[in-house]
Amino acid sequence: MHQTTVENVLSNIVMLYSGVVQGSGIGPLMFLVYINELIDVLERHNVKVKMFADVKMYTKIINDVDLVQLQCA
Predict the structure, then answer these.
(1) 32: domain range?
(2) Sign of the CA dihedral 40, 42, 45, 47?
(3) What are 20-69's pLDDT values in tens digits?
């Protein structure tokens, strides 16, 4: 459940089904957990991943098999 305060006025309570509330204390940790798992999965499918301030993903497509492998990843 989530509720937001703006200028001392509370919003309605809503259910959160996915994601993390912006500004939460656990948000950065959850991002790292998710992004690290994503990188592992992609690299198992031969998709190269580079990270700095953003994420870049790439692979060489030579034939239809490579294309299907990227789509599966």
Answers:
(1) 21-72
(2) negative
(3) 667 777 878 877 887 888 888 888 888 888 877 677 878 888 999 988 88
